[in-house]
Amino acid sequence: MAYPVTIIIPSLNPDEKLLKVVSAAASGGFSRLILVDDGSAEENRHYFTRALEIAQEEGLPATLLRHAKNLGKGRALKTAFNDYLSNPQGCVGAVTVDGDNQHCIEDVQRCAQCLTEHPDTVFLGARDFSLDNVPPRSRFGNRFTSFLFRFACGLKISDTQTGLRAIPNRWMEDFLDLVGERFEYETNMLLEMKTKNIPFREIPIQTVYLEENKSSHFNPLKDSMRIMGVLFRFLAASGASWGVDILLFTLLQFLFRGLSITMSVFLSTAVARIASSLINLSLNRTVVFRQKGGLGGTVIRYYILCGIQLLVSAGLVSLLLHFLGRAWSLPVKLCVDTLLFLASFQVQREWVFRR
Hints:
By secondary structure, the protein is of the alpha/beta class. It folds into two domains: 5-224, Spore Coat Polysaccharide Biosynthesis Protein SpsA, Chain A, CATH 3.90.550.10; 230-352, no CATH class. 58% of the residues lie in helices and 11% in strands. The protein contains twelve helices and seven strands. It has helices at residues 16-26, 46-57, 73-86, 105-117, 136-153, 169-176, 183-195, 220-227, 229-255, 261-288, 296-324, 329-352, and strands at residues 5-11, 32-38, 62-67, 93-96, 122-126, 165-168, 200-204. Strand 1 (5-11), helix 1 and strand 2 form a beta-alpha-beta unit. Helix 9 packs antiparallel against helix 10 (261-288). The longest helix has 29 residues, at 296-324.
């Protein structure tokens, strides 16, 4: 079957596995092939030359794009996207494939078929990380980033590191505009799908790891931390406003010590929360979620959330202090507000600062 789809293969310092990938793609029924040499060493460049020859022998139009030095997978993909968009040649989109032969041609064809039938949807090849052949580094990396994606971004994706992605023409230009030069770029593509409500589906694919995945340049801990900037910005902004809240709460508890526990906790919580909320609203809107446009609706939603948090915080702290005593006010306040912080992040992301 012929697919109106282009295959994109970025590669750095390839070996014989790249030739196997290209050979399979050349006979897979695709319309075009774009290879990207991301600054490979001189001794590895002949594999690209041979890959072009294989494609030509099978009658598959092929283009080789080359970086003078290694710029990263993200830049390699953007180089290919730019070349593709300049002349799609009648294709409905492109499928990105890793050059290490860990994507089976049948799975690539399934992605191409789905893209052909649904040219407005992004399709992601999803591996099964519960299998015994998955290296520990890859299992940890994917599970860790999947958890962060669900918690920090509200995206339920089982394979956040997949290199097998079918991208329609409609959305490719949006992806081309994204920042990121290395592995974080592929993560930014997923975040863009959330931001712009781009429809996507995961397609189960075979889980293949060759030589314990030694060819992978992905560092699970380093890259997972780097790509989850939204969560870290939220933590920093919340930490700043929370520090103001705790300091004011402690001071006001001292000033209101002559009142009942319930009244002193409520007044201290209210005054401290109002002051810290002004700081938090400004930081979350401009630095964390980077919301643009009108402020009116955001302010209303934000203070509805603040009001609910205030009542819940004051109620729980007051209840617990009745059992533990006033001396426990600070540790109880810290514990209660930590739980509310986790819930607040989800609500702010999905409702208060929605885009």
